[in-house]
Please model this.
Amino acid sequence: MYLAEPELNPLYFRSSQNLTRAKMASGGVSVASLWTEVNRCGQNGDYTRALKALTKILQDNREDVTALQCKIVCLTQNGSFKEALNVMNTHTKMLGSEVVFEKAYCEYRLNRVENALKTIENAPEQTDKLKELYGQVLYRLERYNDCKSVYTDLIRKLPG
Model:
């Protein structure tokens, strides 16, 4: 079964109004051009290069929630699950529940299945993506009847 992975969502990126007012980041490169680089790299699947641009953005503004979210997704896409969890844990107050799926996904991939279960069960909103991961977690915990219920519910919601 295919398990949805975190991805760079276009909604993460700055609006064009914010980009036009962008200042210069460390090293003389505009923040706008760095976000353009992150966007381009994300679309091309070059998450290592996107991480380099995000590092520069975060050097300029350590509390940029959008940059932190993108960094977490890039680290996850590169298989750096522990590092992604470290970023989430370090910035818990800032990120809030914005990265619940990413956190549970990293825990699941690190075989911290009980932690992933707790993260999912404590999520303020149960999205379909989160429910799909919940089904995988339940399956790995050998809670097959619960897993079946989750997937049955997801299938009922499918169109057509």
User: Anything to note?
Assistant: The chain has one domain: 27-156. The two ends are 21 Å apart (CA to CA).
